[in-house]
């Protein structure tokens, strides 16, 4: 039996590693994801076979296994099917939080019933402490991240002040006290609950002040944490497979987080402790009223588009919110049929998560080749007739290049202002997610088209067809 | 326990190194699916939850804790893999593929 167990575990690890690796290449990604799923099923099967061959599995255990599987599995499947592509970041955060919760519950079980789970001794105790700590932070942090992305939660004012550091340090100290108390008493309940409460609150306290473009980085980091929590749970129950897989996800998540930070020219430290971008900028250089805005109708916009030879679309979160990706695709189809060259400029952090826009546009059947990354498209703006900015804001703010005082300074942005004409489709003059004024809107070659992205694009489509485009 | 522990530390170390090496250059397009897929893998805690249930004996609290933990983990795993697949399905170039709208 042992041989079979080890063989299955080894194959599972191998497939998981290949799966994660394959996920980083466009062509192999889908197969790699399925491979990882197979590996996971294999791991579960291996574990069940192993226990059947040794201690056996009681009828009561089977019932609880089936109940948990049916409820968790079906809810997961339903959520995955139902959730709209536009709210992918929230969904990942939710799933991630549940993974953290799972590790937390296992650690709690081991802490409360150390004998049954054979989790005695100092090593098991330390593993339990780590698992509870990381698991709690992952759970509350992910749920807060999800709530913030959904717009259910906003950051309270005191959370943006320096006071939050004091509160978070106090919580961290409380968690440490709980951990020490647990170790000292050999798993005492007082220390355990203090640790659970303090680390849970710490997860909230750390995540709540973070906002704007930084949110995806936090989700990626929390994803890495859930790997660490899984590895710690592996130490608790003594499963090497769990340790390997957890460590792999933890490390890979860290790399991915770093890659994302690089894309925004931000350091991880400033994301975590710098607080929300622009939180204090309303009084600083970034703030101020708009004085010189030109707005125009969709008719004018259509006329300019018709006369263009080269058009670049800059999608942003507004496009996702308005669910306008399909209407956008119809508009670009009409433009293309008139021989107009269309490309899409994808900022690494456009939307609420890197790759968010790619997923969204892929859903609307936009050819993959037309999506251009920032470095690739920035030199092309001067030779572009019309740029259509759809619900993007901070990622096209020239302040990031020109104004050293701006909180955005240093973040790479799309140089849309280099194009001949820029149309910005926006619902109103409210500031972007970061709360920073956008100098682009005041430039002489920029016109604002006010309205919901879907409605404006719908109007544009009608106007373009009236002009005789897309009819050949 | 001690021999086991050292062995586990080796496993942890090698697993971490493997994770660091697995992802080198990721195109931004794949950031979201990769995060989502890796997230599904982190639901490997199903194994821990299953172990807890199987070893629970006749303790109802332990059975319940294990079962709830299993539910959360499977929500993570199944939801994670399916949603990743949904995202990646849209990247395939066949224009006929348009199942989820």
In short:
The complex is a heterodimer of chains A (472) and B (101). Chain A is of the alpha/beta class and 472 residues long.
Report on this model:
The complex is a heterodimer of chains A (472) and B (101). Chain A is of the alpha/beta class and 472 residues long. Chain A folds into three domains: 1-82; 86-276, no CATH class; 298-466, 3-Layer(aba) Sandwich (Rossmann fold). Chain A is built from 18 helices and six strands. Chain A has helices at 2-22, 29-53, 59-82, 88-112, 122-150, 157-160, 163-185, 189-207, 215-237, 240-264, 268-273, 298-307, 317-322, 325-337, 356-363, 374-377, 399-402, 453-466; strands at residues 310-315, 341-346, 371-373, 386-390, 421-426, 446-450. Chain A has a six-stranded parallel beta sheet with strand order 3-2-1-4-5-6. In chain A, β2 (341-346), α15 and β3 (371-373) form a beta-alpha-beta unit. In chain A, α5 (122-150) runs parallel beside α8 and α14 (325-337) runs parallel beside α18 (453-466). The longest helix of chain A is centred in the N-terminal third of the chain and has 29 residues, at 122-150. Chain A is elongated. Chain B has 101 residues and is mostly helical. Chain B has a domain at 27-89. Helices cover 70% and strands 0% of the residues of chain B. The termini of chain B are far apart. Chains A and B meet through α1, α2, α3, α4 and α9 of A and α1, α2, α3 and α4 of B.
């Amino acid at each position: 039996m042992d041989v079979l167990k080890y063989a299955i575990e080894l194959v599972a690890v191998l497939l998981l590693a290949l799966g994660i690796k394959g996920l980083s290449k466009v062509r192999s990604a889908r197969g790699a994801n399925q491979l990882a799923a197979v590996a996971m099923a294999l791991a579960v099967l291996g574990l069940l076979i192993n226990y059947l061959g040794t201690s056996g599995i009681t009828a009561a255990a089977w019932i609880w296994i089936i109940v948990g599987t049916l409820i968790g599995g079906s809810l997961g499947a339903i959520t995955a099917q139902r959730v709209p592509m536009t709210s992918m970041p929230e969904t990942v955060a939710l799933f991630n939080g549940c993974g953290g919760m799972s590790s937390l519950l296992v650690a709690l079980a081991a802490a409360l019933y150390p004998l049954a789970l054979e989790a005695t001794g100092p090593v098991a105790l330390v593993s339990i402490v780590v698992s509870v700590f990381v698991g709690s932070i992952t759970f509350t942090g992910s749920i807060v991240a999800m709530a913030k992305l959904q717009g259910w939660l906003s950051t309270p004012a005191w959370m943006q002040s320096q006071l939050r550091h004091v509160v978070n340090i106090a919580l961290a100290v409380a968690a440490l006290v709980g951990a020490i108390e647990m170790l000292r008493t050999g798993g005492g309940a007082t220390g355990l609950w203090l640790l659970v409460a303090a680390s849970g609150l710490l997860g909230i306290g750390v995540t709540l002040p973070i906002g704007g473009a930084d949110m995806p980085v936090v989700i990626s980091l929390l994803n890495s944490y859930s790997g660490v929590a899984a590895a710690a749970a592996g130490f608790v129950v003594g499963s090497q497979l769990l340790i390997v897989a957890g460590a792999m996800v933890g490390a890979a998540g860290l790399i991915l987080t770093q890659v994302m930070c690089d894309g925004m020219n931000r350091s991880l430290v400033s994301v975590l402790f710098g607080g929300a971008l622009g939180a204090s900028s309303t009084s600083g250089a970034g703030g101020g009223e708009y004085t010189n805005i030109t707005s125009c109708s969709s008719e004018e916009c259509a006329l300019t588009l018709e006369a263009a030879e080269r058009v670049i679309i800059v999608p942003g979160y507004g496009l996702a919110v308005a669910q306008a990706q399909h209407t956008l695709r119809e508009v670009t189809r009409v433009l293309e049929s008139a021989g107009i060259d269309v490309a899409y400029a994808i900022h690494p952090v456009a939307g609420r998560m890197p790759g968010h826009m790619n997923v969204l546009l892929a859903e609307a059947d936009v050819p993959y080749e037309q999506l251009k990354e920032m470095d690739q498209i920035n030199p092309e703006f001067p030779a572009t007739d019309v740029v259509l900015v759809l619900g993007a804001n901070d990622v096209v703010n020239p302040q990031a290049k020109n104004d050293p005082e701006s909180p955005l300074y240093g973040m790479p942005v799309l140089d849309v202002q280099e194009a001949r004409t820029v149309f910005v489709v926006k619902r109103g003059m409210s500031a972007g997610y970061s709360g920073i004024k956008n100098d682009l809107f005041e430039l002489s070659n920029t016109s604002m088209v006010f309205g919901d992205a879907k409605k404006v694009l719908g109007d544009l489509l009608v106007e373009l067809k009236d002009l005789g485009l897309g009819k050949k | 326990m001690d021999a086991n522990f050292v062995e586990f530390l080796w496993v942890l170390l090698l697993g971490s190194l493997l994770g660091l090496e697995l992802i080198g250059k990721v195109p931004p397009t794949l950031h979201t699916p990769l995060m989502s897929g890796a997230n599904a893998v982190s639901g490997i805690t199903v194994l821990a939850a299953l172990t807890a249930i199987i070893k629970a004996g006749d303790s109802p609290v332990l059975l319940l804790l294990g079962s709830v933990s299993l539910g959360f983990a499977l929500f993570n795993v199944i939801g994670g893999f399916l949603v990743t697949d949904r995202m990646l399905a849209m990247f395939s170039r066949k224009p006929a593929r348009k199942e989820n709208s």
